[in-house]
Specification:
The relative contact order is 0.15. Helix 1 crosses helix 11 and helix 7 packs across helix 9. The protein has two domains: about 240 residues, Alpha-Beta Complex (Spore Coat Polysaccharide Biosynthesis Protein SpsA, Chain A), CATH 3.90.550; about 80 residues, no CATH class. The strands form three sheets. The protein has a seven-stranded mixed beta sheet. It is an alpha/beta fold. It is globular and about 60 Å long.
Length: about 325
Amino acid sequence: MDQASLSAPSSKAKVAIVLLSRRAPDLKTWLQYHLDYMGVTHVFMDVEDSPHFDEAWQTLSQADKDRVSVWKNSPTGDQADARPVDDYTTLQARQLSAMRRAKTASKQMGIDWLLHIDDDELLYAPLQRAIGEILATVPNGFDQAYLPNIEAVYDSADVKSCFTETSKVNMNRYTFVSYANGKSAVRVANEDAQPAGPHQWRNSQNQELSSIHLDAEQFGSPVWLVHFESCPFARWEDKFWELGNTSPAKVDGIPFKFYKQSITRMMHCRNRKERGEAFLEQDGEECSQASLKDLWSRWKTAQNPAIKRMDLMPITIPWAKIKAMAL
């Protein structure tokens, strides 16, 4: 590849996000952050089983609403949920469908880059640069930019506003409780690019696109993806209670110990409930709130013995400024 093809454009890029959202813990904050602070041009949101979505939607400014495309492919409210009972192994297919749809729409809207993230993830630029400014520096010869991910570390299981109450993250990918391979932005102009799972894109021959890894930059990545996984505690409880339907064989195939332990505990508690047993609020009772919070805390807070002090990095986000921007 010659030097000319690797030259970086100078204008700010138009960047879109696509996500599959279900019962988002803090949709208003998530949207305000990305649209008003990080400079995301447009958000494509495929909404599933979210009874309170309309209520949250009405709290947004009209300017933000105009920059969001909402797709509702599942019933909400008191209607029957069309989602499959075993959600873990079917989620990815629905994510890929949303990614394809968003890429087509992005091309029509003149979007330069498309990125798939979740409603529990935030783009984070330590130097407070807009995402369009960052991706505009990607040389023209690259059609995919990998963003590294990091994990939020919480003070306790009593955290309520996961985004605004988090002040530190775990930088050691080898001790993450969930995925550690980051996610990528795709250049929309590459018509042959296809989603290859929620983390990356490939061409129609299933070959790697010409890609750049932002964490390989000399002074570190200019942007990170902060994963606020399984927060707040109530969302973890709801998520893994439903995943308690997962068959033992499929549980064995899950690569994350935190997921396995959470599903296994919830399977046990579901079985007890179906047998009519009471969930006793006693010390050591496996299905009590105290014991469930203890399990959560041993993975998601600094109580996790795998997380070392040297792996923690403070994050600073001007939340008061962001909330004022939307007024």
